[in-house]
Structure formats: structure tokens, C-alpha cells
Write a structure and sequence with these properties.
14 helices, TIM Barrel, 2 domains, 8-stranded parallel β-sheet, 4-stranded antiparallel β-sheet
Length: 375
Amino acid sequence: MAQPPVTVFSQLAIDDMRIYRFDVPLKDVFTIATMSLSTAQNILVEVQTNQGLIGWGEASSFRSIVGETQCINIAAAQELRPLLIGKNPLALQPLMEQLEAWLPHNTTLKSAIDMALFDIAAQACGLPLYAYLGGEKREMETDLTLGIGDPAQAGEKALAVQAMGFRIIKVKLGLSDKDDYRRLANIRRAVGPQTILRIDANQGWDRIAATRSLRAFEELEIELCEQPCRVRDLQGMRYVHQHAAIPVMADESVFSASDALEIVQQDAAAYFNIKLSKSGGIHHAQKIAHVAEAGFRPCMIGCMSESRLGITAAAHFACAHPIIRFFDLDSCLEHTENHILGGIGYQGGSISIPDAPGIGARPDPDYVRTLEEVR
């Protein structure tokens, strides 16, 4: 077997960054309190180097959460590409800080670039990403999410999830108090007491509606509730956190380490949900995890609608941060197609990740040749 070329770290440089539209249809329309989605309109970023190392990243945006769309991400990638050419990809911290200074916000696009750079760095060291980040493999069990739908069908859908081997179900809520209760009650009745139920309102309530709903849900044994109130209504979320027995998890309210610090200081939530697409990638997600550790806030690793590429990177990140106690890494299971080679494995809800250098997942080259490349 031919040996890979020896990487000369000091001479490594980025030759090009290629951008591809990456549209993947979903098995069903996915509805949350603030939007609906029938196709994951993602982008792929390929970072090529002068020594043959190639890193892959993925951006998956939910417009109502991150304020970005596929077209916005493509435009941002075109703007940022010239800043990367000729730079050493191993200089991750200064590179990401330069991109942040040049284009604040646009976290989803920057997460794809960040992912590709970390992929290259781990490959250059001959390590799987989790080891490069200082972690080790551990047991991880993901939930599977049910979007907002007909309450009468919720129990049947939950049973189908249970039959797939998932012991944890996350349920989207936030459009109708009456339907929310019926949906949850039907699910609990169908799956029994052994299945863990989580809920996510995606900012669908104010503090009064949230407190009223969570008190009504107590009899249904709910593990936690994500983002009951609007993004900046930290006082409202704090009120719910203090007056409801179901623990509150901040999601849309935590984009950055400074957001996390503010929630800790105000004691506005018990938990954080960290998403690479929301934080701007691994570099910034690590900062949030460190604030969470300092503030004694257990975290979830979450997702938007990434393929197995983005989901695998998120799982590697989770292995490097013990403060992550909850796993929501199911989005690729809702895709009708899988064009990623390698990557995360599922046995029911149990997750396994590869030991190949880097992320250990990459798009099928034959498939990439069919995609639209944007220059």
C-alpha cells in the first residue's frame, strides 16, 4: 500500500476553496414553531492544499434561527475565499478570528470553513478529529425528532421511532397549546414510561404560556424543554426556569460564548444546546463549552439539517467535551439520500464514529461531480 505523502507543516498552504450547492430532500416536511422545511438547502465547502490534503465542511442554515439561507452562505463564501488562499490551514485560531473580524455573524457559513480546516489539521496529524481535539470515544445516544404535525398521528409516529431502536424522542411544539398537549399525551400513551421525551418550543411561547404549558406537561414526564421564549427574552426564560419543574435548555439564545456567559450570569436556563452551524464551528463551540463548564451548565450537541458529514464532525466534537450530556444528532436520518462516504454509524439511537484521520467522512466524488460549483 502506498504511503501518504509526508506533510511539511510549515509549508502547508491553502490552494483553493471550492463551494457547492448541496440540496437534499427530506422524507417529510419538517415543521417547527418558526418555519417549515422540505429540502435541506446546504452547501459543501472543499478546502484544497498544496500538499494534497483536502478538508470538507458543510453549512446547514435554518433561516428563522440563524438569519441565513443557502444563497447568503454562497455569497459569504465567495467573499471569504480570497482571505484563505495562501494561508496555512493549521493556523486555525488566527484564521477563524480573521474571518470573524472581516465578516461578523454568518455563523453557518463560517462553521463549514471551520469544519474543513479542522478536518485538514487532524489529517495532517494522522488522528481522528476527536483525538486531535483531545477527546476519546465514549457512549453517545441520540434522540430522534418529531416535527409539529397532526396530534392524532403523533402516537403512531412515535411508535415507529421506538421500533427503529430509539429510546429518546424529541417533540417540536409551540404553535397551539391545545394541540401541543394532545400531541405529547398521545405520544406518552403510545410509547409508555420507558421512553425519554424531550420537547422544543423554538421560541413559540411567552413566559406565561410557557409556564402554563410546562406545568400541564409535568404529568407526562418530560426530561427538558428547549427554548421556550424568544431569543432575547432572557428574563422571560429565567422566569420559566424558576417557575416550572421541567428544566429549560437555551438554544437559539446561545450563539456565542458571550451569550452563554450572560445566561449563566442571569441564571436563565439549566442547560445549553451547542450547534456547530449556530456557533460558527468547532473553534467557537469550544469556547461555549468552556463557559458551560465554568457555569456548571450541562450541554446538548445539536444539529440543523446536516448530512452525515456535518453530523459526524459534531459527534467528534462531543467526544472531546464531557460537559455535553445530551445528543441530538439525527438530522441525516431524515434525508432521502446519503451521498457521504464513511462517517457516523447508528445502531438504534447509539452512535459510533470512525477512527480514520480527520472527520472520517467525505462526499462521494462521483456525486460531487453532479453538483453545481459556485465560483
